[in-house]
Design a protein that fits this description.
about 575 residues, alpha+beta, 6-stranded mixed β-sheet, 5-stranded antiparallel β-sheet, 13 helices
Length: about 575
């Protein structure tokens, strides 16, 4: 069950229930402890009773013994035996009651020993009475009888004192427990009363706040409704059959219909061109299952017959059972965008024609320069001096470099215009193939590759091949002055993405110039040191950016460089570790 109280009110109720529970617990504990104390006091009183009975028995027996000594009454024998039985009974009861009190048990043992001595003395008196009255009478005030009587009286008195002290302790403990219980009850009752008062004010405040919130909600709802109706984009809802159940004013104005002509009257397909109806019939069933659809393009028909392009994004509203109720669709008029795309397409076509023209017009003179220079060198080289031959080599080298630069510029230009064709790429196979091709061109070098298992990726196969070719050739180029070239390639999962890295032990670069790395024609080393046009990394950057990814580099001078990049895609395929030496 859902609770609609504010948290503080709920906490207050919980605390109040806790206090009531504590009151119950304390009542139960106090009652239990009170009963225990009552039982202990009753137990002590019972012990005192039996001690007193032992004392009374001893006094009666002493009195009867004195009368027997004076009168010689033979009835003493039966009285004496009866009193002994009474004493034995009370001693037995005492033994059971004080079995957990060593001091009292010790006292009871003393009473029993003294009782036996007293019985022995009584037997002497009885036996002496059969001989002479005078001898019987002399035994009563004897030192032995006096000692036994005094010792017995003292032991019984000490037992009574100990038991009275114990009873007093139980009574005082009971009073202390009662005082604590009353204090606790008072405090808990006071706290409960305070909580009830606070709860009343909190509930009152909550209801008042809820009333104000409902008022604000009504105002906000009216404002949202106004925003819904007058938003710069169209909104509408469709039921499970595709019937329009709601549409805002913007959508109605675009179409030229009134609300009564559209809502619960027309299915969405009646507002679409035949081609768009086909798209809708394909997407709508899938939308009801998935629960969303993004950037679906339709051509809609206005009431006057005009056609205008739109993009639709929609989310499905479902009930607790997951059944489709209706859509919440957002519509954007992309007429201006379509016009802009047509202009861009026209410009791209013009750029393609211009690029082709430039390429053709530049390559012809370059081929002439390179060809005539070769002829001069081959035909007249032996007759020219050393400086003239060097200059001819410079001309031919720069002509070839210019040709390579034109090729790179064309590649760079095409990447920005080419449509991506995403496929699942086995990066392991692609990288190994590129490695073999490039290493075959590096004869005489000691090159060692360490290629870890690489996750596959969904990307344009040709463009990704260009990325890996440029990165691996760069690593080979900037390690060319090393006796041993070491290149490591791996991939790792990081923040939900797969990051690929290629590390080398080459010359590296200063990180303060890292912002120039991916710019066109930007070079961090002189052309005399390392050949190149300065377009390769810019091309890599553009390809990865077009895939929605990112590339970056880390390096230190003379300590190699690491280039890392990622392309958003599902990349799970990883195989066993492998090491490849080129």
């Amino acid at each position: 069950m859902k609770v609609y109280f504010e948290r503080r009110i709920l906490v207050g109720f919980i605390v109040a229930f806790a206090i009531l529970a504590l009151l119950g617990v304390y009542t139960y504990r106090y009652d239990r402890e009170s009963r225990v104390t009552t039982l202990l006091v009753a137990h002590t009183n019972e012990v005192l009773y039996h001690i007193e009975q032992l004392n009374s028995t001893a006094l009666r027996l002493e009195k009867e013994l004195h009368e027997f000594a004076l009168t010689g009454d033979t009835a003493f024998n039966s009285i004496y035996k009866k009193e002994l039985l009474t004493a034995a009974h009370h001693a037995g009861m005492l033994a059971k009651l004080i079995d957990d009190n060593p001091a009292q048990l010790s006292g009871l043992d003393s009473v029993r020993l003294l009782g036996r001595e007293k019985v022995g003395l009584i037997k002497k008196v009885i036996a002496a009475g059969t001989v002479s009255v005078a001898e019987r009478r002399t035994l009563i005030p004897s030192e032995e009888n006096t000692r036994i009587s005094n010792l017995l009286a003292g032991v019984i008195a000490r037992m009574k004192d100990r038991e009275k002290i114990l009873r007093q302790q139980h009574v005082e403990a009971s009073r202390e427990d009662e005082s604590k219980a009353m204090t606790t009850f008072t405090l808990l009752q006071f706290a409960s009363g305070i909580l009830l008062i606070l709860g009343f004010f909190a509930i009152n405040f909550s209801f008042r706040k809820r009333m104000l919130a409902e008022q604000s909600l009504q105002e906000a709802s009216a404002e949202v409704r106004d925003l819904y109706n007058n938003a710069p984009c169209g909104y509408h809802s469709l039921d499970h059959k595709g019937m329009i159940t709601e549409m805002n004013n913007t959508g109605l104005q675009w179409l030229g219909y009134t609300r009564e002509e559209i809502v619960n009257v027309k299915p969405f397909t009646e507002l679409l061109t035949p081609q768009s109806q086909v798209v809708f019939q394909q997407e709508f069933p899938r939308f009801k299952v998935l629960g969303y659809v993004n950037n679906v393009e339709f051509d809609m028909i206005r009431k006057n017959g005009e056609i205008f392009p739109v993009i639709v994004n929609a989310a499905a509203m479902k009930n607790e059972k997951g059944q489709f109720i209706r859509s919440r669709s957002t519509v954007f008029d992309i007429t201006e965008r379509k016009k802009a795309e047509e202009k861009v397409k026209l410009l791209n076509n013009e750029m393609e024609a211009f690029t082709y023209s430039v390429s053709h017009d530049l390559r012809a003179p370059l081929r002439s320069i390179d060809g005539y220079a070769r002829i001069l060198k081959e035909d007249f080289g032996p007759g020219m001096d050393k400086e003239a031959n060097r200059l001819m080599d410079v001309v031919m080298r720069n002509a070839r470099r210019m040709g390579k630069l034109i090729d790179d510029m064309l590649d760079f230009s095409r990447v920005g215009r080419k449509d991506l064709s995403r496929n699942r790429i086995d990066v392991d196979i692609m990288v190994d193939s590129i490695r073999r091709e490039l290493v075959d061109q590096e004869k005489g070098r000691d090159i060692r590759f360490d290629i870890q298992p690489l996750a596959s990726v969904e990307a344009d196969n040709n463009l990704m091949r260009q990325v890996w070719t440029n990165l691996i050739s760069n690593a080979l180029k900037y390690t060319s002055k090393n006796l041993l070239t070491e290149i490591t390639i791996d991939s790792r999962h990081e923040n939900g993405k797969v990051v690929y890295s290629i590390r080398d032990n080459g010359v590296g670069f200063d990180m303060k110039y890292a912002n120039k790395l991916f710019g066109v024609f930007q070079r961090l080393h002189k052309i005399e040191e390392f050949d190149g046009t300065g377009v390769g990394l810019a091309l890599v950057h553009r390809i990865i950016s077009r895939h929605g990814g990112k590339i970056w580099a880390e390096s230190e001078v003379n300590k190699g460089a690491t280039f890392s990049f990622y392309i958003p895609a599902e990349t799970n395929n990883v195989r066993h570790d492998k090491q490849i030496s080129g």
